[in-house]
Each structure stands twice: as structure tokens, then as C-alpha cells.
Design goal:
The complex is a heterodimer of chains A (about 230) and B (about 250). In chain A, about 80% of the residues lie in helices and about 0% in strands. Chain A is mainly alpha-helical. In chain A, helix 2 runs antiparallel to helix 8, helix 3 (about 55-70) packs across helix 5 and helix 4 (about 75-90) packs across helix 5. The radius of gyration of chain A is 21 Å and the shape is elongated. Chain A starts with a helix and ends in a 6-residue tail after the last helix. Chain B is about 35% helix and about 25% strand. Chain B is built from nine helices and ten strands. In chain B, the strands form two sheets. In chain B, strands 6-7-8-3-9-10 form a six-stranded mixed β-sheet, sandwiched between helices. The chains are: A mainly alpha (about 230), B alpha/beta (about 250). The interface of A and B includes residues 226 and 228 of A.
Chain lengths: ~230, ~250
């Protein structure tokens, strides 16, 4: 297994670059980070809609979340693959497709994280904010979201780990991320599939494990500070 | 300044407030007392619409607070509220807690808001703590900052919902002193409290509530020496502790 690592390290880590598009682990990270970053604002909006006093807004938010959480990501990727070019009206790269799919998929999960973060705050914070005359929006922006975000960080990091593993599905539509690199190595060597896929698992494990440990440290650090309690 | 007319409130089937009628004039300091569950906190919370009422009218400065023309945020800017659990904004310093309202709601400049914050902290005796975070303050200090935060909005009326009930005994007097100074300065105040000594000395009137009803509305001397309603008499007897002469208003 070590020879596989030695011979094909750069293929695993950065794909065909610089002789081709960036791929491998780098691509996996870019897909995950981009996907999460773009989906977060949408998730905040959906999370807020969940808590809205307008029935229709709550209805849309709830069904968005239910439908997306009930469908496999693979299906969402396929849907994106066929629908996004239709919406945009032209050719769309596999990369864009997968980013769109992740944005949609994560918006539903992160919306729940946002909602939990906000509902976990003591009611007194909202009451105090409204009692000095702040509007709902102002109380959300200056008092509630900042405090909720601190509490949400461990959950968001967990979603990040989940997303990194989910990007392996991009392989199915030919996006050159880490799993695709492993498949390429396999096509080249043909005789060592077990070792290659063990190495692949190792890469994912190291990445996800490190991030989970980081989340654990973050939780300790946050847990040490009082969370919105007077 | 404040008129409560036939206020009725239900929590589902539970009748929390039963036809409450009362009024407060400018400059008065009213203390609401009564046993737990009598509806005191509920009543005070209805004034800034933290709780909804099902019947009756609340008139603040001669305007129905549920009227179409009334902006609830403007109302809350004119009525300061001090909570039992302080509720300081944990993500900001004392300075920011005090300047957030004036800057964002009243639209005054940051410099003016800072100056006002400084003045108010001197008033409550905490000028050195202007850049402290709420988590690093004691309960008594947090409550004094909470009072300053409410005062920063320059309200016409101050509401206090059991301001000292969550404090350790040694911190209660520092908060009561601030409230007493405020009363002396002529602020109109409505205070829900169990501090009978404070009520006797500082209030202009005492309201006694039991079981959702406002049973007695009298001057403090009349109320403590000669309570009319039998339940008020029982309450005062229960409140007096024989070995606590300071808190024994009737043992004068």
C-alpha cells in the first residue's frame, strides 16, 4: 500500500494538476467548503422561516426540509445534473452541478442546525431585546444570531464532515475528486483494487477524524463560556 | 399615565387575570405584592405586550397600546423593563448593552450614547465596569447594569418584575438603593416585589393581588397597618418573620 501512496500521491492529493484540472483531495475540500459556505446563508433564511409567524413561510420551509432530507444525495446530484443546465440555459460543468446539489442538500440540514441554535437561547434574551424597542430583525441581528452562531459551531463542523464524505458521490458524474482519483489509480494498476480503496478510506478517515477532533476541541472551548445565560 | 381597564387574561383554560382595574399617575411608585401565582408578573408583562390580553384595555399616555396607530417597538422604547433574571446581552460588553438601544432605536449618535452610558453607570455605581462582559459581573452588578440599560432609553415609565428575587441577600440592598434613588428623582415606577420594607418606605401605593384579582389598592401606611381584605391580612401575616425585625412592617 505504501508504494501506491508513493507513486500516486500527487494524483490522490491534487488530481491531474498541473497537467489537467485540479482534483483529488484538494477538489474534495473545495467542493465541501464552497458547498457549505454558499448554503449557509440560505440555511439561515430557511431556519428563520421555520420560526416565522407567517404560516405560509413556515409551510414552505418545513416542506423544503422534509423533501430534501428524505431524498438520497445521489438523486439530488442526478436532478441537478439534468435540471441546472435547463435553468441556466447552457452547458454546466460537473463541478457546478455538484456544488448546486450540495448547496440544496446542506441547506435543509443546516436550517435545522440554525433553528436549534436559535431555539436553544434563553427566551429572556429575546424579551430583553424586544423590550428596549428593537424590532424582530434587529433583535435577530444584534442579539440572537451572534449568540446562536457560537453555539452552532460544533454542529456546523459535524455537517462539514458529513459533506466531505458526501462529495465522494461526485465521482458518479465524473467530477475529479478524491474517489475519482482512486478509481483512476485502479484503472492504471488493475491488480490492487483492495489496497487502493483502503488507501482511499485512509485519506477520508484522516481528514474526517481530524475535523471531528477539532470540533471536539471547539466544543470544550465553547462549553467553558456561558451560553447566553444571565 | 397608565390605565388598566377590565383586563382579562387566560392561559388556555386558566384564568390568570380577572377583570383588573387600576391606574398609575406620573411620578407614582407602585409596588405590586401578593402570593406566588397571583398574576403579578403576568400583569406587569401585559403592559409592554410581552403577554397578550384577551379582554380589556391598557392605556399608556392616553393611547390604547393595542391601537392600530401604536407601534409596539416605540411603546417598548418608552417603557423600561427590568427582568428578574437580568437578561443582559451576553455577547456584548456593558457599554454595548447600554448603547445598543439608544443608537439603533432612538437614532442618537454613538458619542452621545456613550456619554449617556457613562452617566448612567455612575448613577448605578458601576462606571469602572463599562467595558466588562456580563459574565464577569455579580448578580447585583448585572441587575444594576440592566436598570441602566432600561434608563438609557429615557423611558416615561419603568417596570420591574421581581428585580431582587434572583439575587443573593447581600446584593439586594445595592439594587434597592438604585431603585430608591430613581424614585426620588421622580420616575414613574411599577414594581413587582416581595421586599416589604422597601414597599413601605418607597412606594406611593401598594397593590395587593391574589389569584388573578387586584384585591387592594392603598397607600403603604394604610396597607401595612390596616389591610382591608382578609386575604391581604393573611398574606402580611405569612410574610412577617418573627426573628427578622427589619422585614416586619407590621411589628412597628
Amino acid at each position: 500500500m505504501l508504494e501506491i501512496l508513493q507513486n500516486y500521491a500527487s494524483l490522490f492529493l491534487i488530481g491531474a494538476y498541473p497537467n489537467g484540472p485540479l482534483g483529488g483531495l484538494a477538489m474534495t475540500l473545495i467542493l465541501s467548503v464552497l458547498g457549505l459556505t454558499l448554503s449557509f446563508p440560505i440555511a439561515v433564511l430557511i431556519g428563520l422561516a421555520h420560526m416565522s409567524s407567517f404560516g405560509w413561510l413556515r409551510f414552505i420551509a418545513q416542506w423544503w426540509t422534509r423533501v430534501i432530507r428524505g431524498i438520497p444525495l445521489l438523486l439530488i446530484i442526478f436532478w441537478a445534473y439534468f435540471c441546472v443546465p435547463l435553468i441556466v440555459g447552457g452547458e454546466v460543468s460537473g463541478f457546478t452541478t455538484v456544488v448546486c446539489a450540495i448547496v440544496v442538500y446542506e441547506s435543509a440540514f443546516l436550517a435545522q442546525v440554525v433553528r436549534a441554535g436559535l431555539e436553544g437561547l434563553p427566551k429572556g434574551q429575546t424579551e430583553a431585546a424586544r423590550s428596549i424597542g428593537l424590532t424582530w430583525m434587529q433583535s435577530m441581528r444584534f442579539v440572537r444570531l451572534p449568540q446562536a452562531l457560537t453555539n452552532m459551531i460544533p454542529s456546523i463542523v459535524n455537517q462539514f464532515v458529513s459533506t466531505i464524505k458526501a462529495t465522494s458521490l461526485a465521482y458518479v458524474i465524473g467530477v475529479p475528486e478524491l474517489t475519482y482519483s482512486a478509481a483512476q489509480v485502479n484503472t492504471m494498476t488493475l491488480t490492487k483494487p483492495l489496497e487502493i480503496y483502503l488507501v482511499l478510506a485512509g485519506f477520508y478517515f484522516v481528514l474526517c477524524f481530524s475535523i471531528s477532533r477539532f470540533a471536539g476541541l471547539l466544543e470544550l472551548r465553547i462549553g467553558g463560556k456561558p451560553r447566553g445565560m444571565a | 399615565m397608565l390605565k388598566l381597564e377590565n383586563i382579562d387574561k387566560w392561559y388556555g383554560d386558566y384564568h390568570a387575570l380577572k377583570t383588573v382595574n387600576a391606574d398609575i399617575k406620573k411620578g407614582e411608585v407602585v409596588v405590586v405584592c401578593g402570593p406566588s401565582g397571583s398574576g403579578k408578573s403576568t400583569l406587569i408583562r401585559t403592559i409592554t405586550r410581552l403577554e397578550e390580553i384577551q379582554a380589556g384595555r391598557i392605556l399608556f399616555e392616553d393611547k390604547d397600546i393595542y391601537g392600530r396607530a401604536v407601534d409596539v417597538n416605540r411603546l417598548r422604547a418608552r417603557v423600561g423593563f427590568v427582568f428578574q433574571s437580568f437578561n443582559l446581552f451576553q455577547n456584548m460588553s456593558v457599554r454595548d448593552n447600554l448603547t445598543l438601544g439608544p443608537v439603533k432605536v432612538l437614532g442618537i449618535s454613538r458619542d452621545e450614547a456613550n456619554a449617556r452610558a457613562q452617566e448612567l453607570l455612575v448613577k448605578v455605581g458601576l462606571e469602572k465596569k463599562i467595558d466588562a462582559m456580563p459574565a464577569n459581573l455579580s448578580g447585583g452588578q448585572q441587575q444594576r447594569v440592566a436598570i441602566a440599560r432600561a434608563l438609557a432609553m429615557q423611558p416615561a415609565l419603568m417596570l420591574f418584575d421581581e428585580p431582587t428575587s434572583a439575587l443573593d441577600p447581600e446584593m439586594v440592598s445595592e439594587v434597592l438603593q438604585v431603585m430608591q434613588a430613581l424614585a426620588r428623582d421622580g420616575m414613574t415606577m411599577l414594581i413587582v416585589s416581595h421586599e416589604m420594607g422597601f414597599a413601605r418606605e418607597v412606594s406611593s401605593r401598594v397593590w395587593f393581588m391574589d389569584n388573578g384579582e387586584l384585591l387592594e389598592d392603598a397607600a403603604p401606611d394604610d396597607f401595612f397597618c390596616n389591610p382591608q381584605h382578609p386575604r391581604a391580612r393573611k398574606f402580611l401575616q405569612d410574610v412577617v418573620r418573627p426573628h427578622d425585625r427589619i422585614k416586619a412592617p407590621m411589628a412597628a
